[in-house]
Design a protein that fits this description.
The protein has 355 residues and is an alpha+beta fold. Helices cover 35% and strands 24% of the residues. The chain has eleven helices and 19 strands. The strands form six sheets. Strands 4-3-2-1-5-6 form a six-stranded mixed sheet, sandwiched between helices. A three-stranded antiparallel sheet has the order 7-10-11. A hairpin with a 6-residue loop joins strand 13 and strand 14. The relative contact order is 0.11. The model has no long low-confidence stretch (mean pLDDT 94).
Length: 355
């Protein structure tokens, strides 16, 4: 069954006769459109792609043939209304986890005779399981990010700022074929490496400290996400200690990944080891997340979620230890879930690199 048919198979149980899709990642997932403005109206019998004049030509090139393309000039909701009335739609679902309150109220005001039903994470049930093309694109994105890491190792040195290195990462992502970064690259040095999502600053990298690099790129919409922590000079003994703990925790979790296992079980392999080593309170985020057209998507890998991994889920495995006033370590790989294990996409070394 194709993706749209899978989504529509939920219409009866949800009590809706159409679905209004506004999230751009889901629009790309279902229709192939890669632009920055658009919507989908999925009905039982026919599907519509809606955008404005800016995307008239692009939509003809990208949108799948099963969609009728509607190009409006001004009021998109009003334009949709003509089709809502013509098709006799009475109950329309909308993505309550993405549509703003203002947009939802706008729909209700524009179509007072239609009942709008909040639908949460319907499409996301299917986006987490990738097809072969999406897996291949992710592999290309990971290959570029691995290549950028190797290049950064030849550039990074004491005296350069975190912002300098962040800019180099962005440059080489595009230089090597990506359309851009998955997110603003994280470069955190010294005591700032204890900030899990530190924004790069003009702080200069110095000798005898750790530097955490977390970055990824985009290839035809699909994203990569990798973290490596490196050292300069002679780092404190505790930094080496936590590095080795994180590395072992990461390897244990990756080795446990396979279809059918719950994500909280995967999380426990890393979190339990880190806790046993005395750093349980220094690992405060989830072990990982799904990866695709969004940098963070389902499944979320944490101690509370019972989701069972499926073949062709793409997830990150990224334990960390963060010690305030000292520094932090995070190591992250992207993996594709298989029936009896997983395929690790990254080839960048995980052993501590000291420059």
């Amino acid at each position: 069954m194709d993706r749209i048919s899978l989504v529509k198979s939920n219409f009866k149980s949800l009590g809706i006769d159409a679905l209004f899709v506004k999230n751009l990642s889901n629009i790309r997932y279902l229709s192939g459109f890669s632009g920055s403005a658009g919507a989908l109206l999925l009905t039982k019998d026919k599907d519509y792609f809606i955008s404005d004049f800016r995307y008239k030509t692009q939509s003809k090139m990208e949108v799948y043939d099963n969609f009728e393309i509607l190009i409006y000039k001004q009021n998109s909701y009003g334009y949709v209304g003509d089709y809502v009335k013509k098709l006799g739609l009475k109950k329309i679902g909308y993505e309550s986890n993405f549509l703003t309150v203002n947009d939802a109220e706008g729909l209700k005001k524009e179509f007072p005779s239609v009942k709008f039903v909040a639908v949460n994470s319907l499409i996301e049930k299917y986006t987490s399981q990738k097809n072969e093309r999406e897996i291949d694109l992710t592999k290309k994105a990971v290959e570029i990010t691995d290549r950028v890491f190797a290049k950064i190792l030849t550039i990074i040195k004491p005296g350069l700022t975190e912002n300098d290195i962040s800019a180099e990462i962005s440059y080489y992502h595009k230089k090597y074929g990506a359309s851009g970064d998955s997110f603003d690259p994280i470069v955190a040095s010294g005591v700032r490496s204890a900030f899990p999502h530190a924004r790069p600053t003009n702080k200069k990298i110095a000798n005898n400290e750790l530097v955490t690099l977390d970055f990824g790129c985009v290839v035809e919409g699909m994203k990569s996400d990798m973290t490596r922590t490196i050292a300069f000079g002679k780092i404190p003994a505790e930094c080496k200690k936590i590095y080795n703990i994180v590395l072992e925790a990461q390897v244990r979790a990756v080795n446990a990944v396979k279809a059918g296992i719950t994500v909280k079980k995967i999380d426990s392999f890393a979190r339990g080891y880190i806790k046993a080593k005395g750093y349980g309170n220094n690992f405060g985020h989830g072990l990982g997340h799904g990866l695709g057209y969004d940098i963070h998507e389902g499944p979320s890998i944490n101690p509370r979620t019972d989701y069972k991994l499926l073949v062709n889920n793409i997830v990150t495995i990224e334990p960390g230890i963060y010690v305030e006033g000292l520094g932090g370590v995070r190591i992250e790989d992207d993996v594709v879930v298989k029936e009896n294990g997983c395929e690790i996409l990254n080839i960048s070394p995980k052993e501590l690199i000291t420059l």
